[in-house]
Amino acid sequence: MGRTGEGVGVTPPVADIEEQFREFVAARSTALLRTAYLLAGDWGVAEDLLQVALTKTYLAWRRLGQIDAVEPYARRVLVNTTTSWWRRRWHGERPTEILPERSVSDGLDARLERDALWQHVKELPARQRAVLVLRFYEDMSEADTAAMLDVSIGTVKSQCARAIAALRTRLGERGIEPAVRSLRTDDSRDEREAVTT
C-alpha cells in the first residue's frame, strides 16, 4: 500500500485529516458495508466489522498524516478484521428475521436462486468466502486478490476452485443450474448488488 507522510516532516492538521476522513466515509461506507456483509453474512456483524475497520483506518491516517489509495487500504483492513473475527468465533446456526417464501410467482425464480447461492456462500470457510467476494463481487484479479489476502496466486486459484465446486454441488442438489451463474464476472454490478438488498 503506498503511503506518504512518512519522513516528509510536515503532517497535515488533525482538522484536515478528520475532514478528509469524513468525506471518505460519506462516499464509500455503503459500498464497504456491502462487502463486509458478504464477508460476514450478517448485517449487524458487518456494521460492527466496518466500524472497527474504519476506526483502524482513521488511526493509521492520523499516525501517518496521509494514506495514498485510502479505499484499498480500508478494504484490506476490513478483510483482515473479518478474518480475525471468523477465527475467534464459533459459527453455528443463526436466527433470521425473514424466512424465504415457499410459494413464489413467476419472475422471482432468479432472485430466489441468487438468495440460495449467497446462503450457501455464507457456509463456506472464511478464506474461500473472502476469495469469492473479492474475485467476483469486487471484480479483483487473482493477483490483486492474492495481495489483499496476503496469500499466493495459487492459493487464490485453489480456494476459488474448491468454493465453486462446493457451491455447484450444494445448489445442484437443489436443482439450481447453472449453480454459479450469479458469480460470473460478466454479470453487472447492479445485479450482484441486488443480492444484498
**In angstroms, what is the radius of gyration?**
19 Å
Q: For the record, give the distance between the C-alpha atoms at the N and C termini, rounded to a whole number.
A: 31 Å
According to DSSP, the number of beta strands is 0
Task: Give the mean pLDDT.
Answer: 76
Shape: elongated
Can you characterise this structure?
By secondary structure, this protein is an all-alpha fold. The protein folds into two domains: 14-88, Rna Polymerase Sigma Factor, Chain: A; 109-196, Winged helix-like DNA-binding domain superfamily/Winged helix DNA-binding domain (Arc Repressor Mutant, subunit A, Orthogonal Bundle), CATH 1.10.10.10. It is 65% helix and 0% strand. It is built from eight helices and no strands. The chain has helices spanning 14-40, 43-64, 70-88, 109-122, 126-137, 142-149, 153-173, 189-193. The longest helix has 27 residues, at 14-40. The chain is elongated and about 60 Å long. The two termini are 31 Å apart. Residues 1-9, 103-107 and 179-197 have low confidence and may be disordered.
Task: Indicate the topology.
Layout (H helix, E strand, L loop, with lengths): L13 H27 L2 H22 L5 H19 L20 H14 L3 H12 L4 H8 L3 H21 L15 H5 L4
Which terms would index this structure?
197 residues; Rna Polymerase Sigma Factor, Chain: A; Arc Repressor Mutant, subunit A; elongated
Quick structural gist:
The protein is mostly helical and 197 residues long. The chain has 2 domains: 75 residues, Rna Polymerase Sigma Factor, Chain: A; 88 residues, Winged helix-like DNA-binding domain superfamily/Winged helix DNA-binding domain (Arc Repressor Mutant, subunit A), CATH 1.10.10.
